[in-house]
Amino acid sequence: MDKIVGIDLGTTNSLVATVDSGIPFVIADAEGRRLTPSVVHFPAAQAEAVVGAAANRVRVLKPEQTVYSVKRFMGRRGADISQEEMLVTYPVRGEGHGPVTLDINRRAYSPEEISAEILKKLKGDAEAYFGEAVTRAVITVPAYFNDAQRNATKKAGELAGFTVERIINEPTAAALAYGLNKLKERARIAVYDLGGGTFDLSILEINEGVFQVLATNGNTRLGGDDLDKRVIDFLIKKIKSAGGPDLARAKETTPAAHERDGRHHQSPTDETSILPLLSRIREAAEQAKIKLSREIEAEITLPFLTPHFSFSYKLTRAELERLTRDLIERTRMHCLRSLADAKLESKDLEQVILVGGQTRMPLVRQFVSEVFGCAEFEETRGSLRLGKEYHRPAGPQLNTSQNPDEAVALGAAVQAEILSGGFQNLLLLDVTPLSLGIETFGGLMNVIIPRNSTIPVKAGEQFTTAVDNQRNMLIHVLQGERERAGDNWSLGRFTLDFDPAPRGVPRVGVQFEIDASGILHVLARDIKTGAQRVVEMKSAVDVDDAAVQRMVEESVEHAFEDLAARRWVEARLKASELIAATRKGLADCANQIAGDYRVQLETLLGEVEAAAAREQAETKIGDSKQLQAACQALDEATRPLAEILMEKAMEALLRKRGAIQ
Hints:
The chain has 661 residues and is of the alpha+beta class. The chain contains 17 helices and 31 strands. Helix 2 crosses helix 3 (147-159) and helix 14 (559-588) packs parallel to helix 16 (624-637). The chain is elongated. The termini are far apart.
């Protein structure tokens, strides 16, 4: 069987790992580096791309031709890219609902093509190590990557020459790396993963080798890059106040800003000269941030920013923490929500595992310790151990024993080994972060796979028609936590044709299947004929990952309103059916009912119709109790009419059988 490698395709760095004799390890490149910077440089139009450390060195000199942090653009639409995210030194083109492209050397690259170059480099490193071709891989993604982003990652792997055997969530991979020999049986852990561009918090349970994800939450637009931007903005202000060039408008003059909404402009010479300055400042800011995880101050030196101006500044850890504290604080709600979704408290956890290079920052470790109530936290500085409240553990342990940069790749290698037949006592059970369903008559969402269902998973239901002689059924696939279809995200639509029949007669089975990579497949089948359609959802509408957070918040905030909306829609549908049935009965029995009884039914019909028509224009919700009461009154009043209709039906049946003349 071909070797399967594990790959962490990261925002800042990427790694490839394997397992040898039961021990996972990261494969180093020819120069001994285990971390490959996720940077790609294109020296000329037809020249081969330069990847990794070599590209990172050129980044300062040729910023417009050097791509970094491309993971943030994977699987996203141009209209979804914020102005802040456009603060890059290479051209980014976004055209409304179309895909994002990067215009380098007069060629438009997709983010998948850029990522494929990084994966090719990792593939080459693995092949050099094994001395043979490597064509199969497990690749990790943030837990909150949506369907489009997962498919984009898979496509990048295929462009690089890999068969992507599995897409797994980064926090889950990290837990696998820690879980080989460090976690006791039946342990519940939290994985706090803060990387270069993404954040995830997952709650897992490990029991007899089975890793089950209980809950996951996060933000794929929050990471170390955002901290870097804060330091960059701070340094730009300091440079200006020290008499240096005014770079504050750089956000508006970078090529990426000109590419916004599909616009293309040739950068003027003075704007082009700003880019190397921004790149130098970015590199200095990142290095200072890294250094301040070990020391309390870092000297930033930028000689000859201009021919007549040099800049130096001593940035302290306290300043860095003041600049970035609110960004770290944003992760709190995701931590608490994951605990709530898992129906656990911090005291129920055995450990909190830190993953991602940004978790080396002392502020992050202190913050995580405070959020989860970790009873023991130490900061090692030199030969001293610092900790104001060092005492016997009463809460979860803050586990920092693994290299946070390598844990995800090691876990991917473990998963690859599982797929290869090794580690047979381990099993990975992941979950889907949001509910999936379809739109039903009346504009409601019918959930087929609930949120936090363990994947791979398959579920389905039968549906019927609401209109006579309906010839097809629209399958509108939704993702979200709201009751009304319009408040959720649309993943796609397709139709299934069938023979016309009275309403309620056709039967259509709809089945959802989420594979092990978290990709959704939808099947719709006409039960009568067996005709079916199977569609892989590639998300025509890219889900805004920042909106994932809002979706869950709004589902809680509007819970009572949504419940009232569902009750109103259901009551109104029932009222419509009752009105139609009553009017048909009145028409069929026109000569068999008394005039006063007809008047009574017409009056009650008017009351039901009036109650159904009264709804608030803004919320489109009416008084469901009043409507239900009106329907109940009409339902009781139509019992004599129902008896007459039953007698007519029996008489027609007997005549058909020749029992009566």
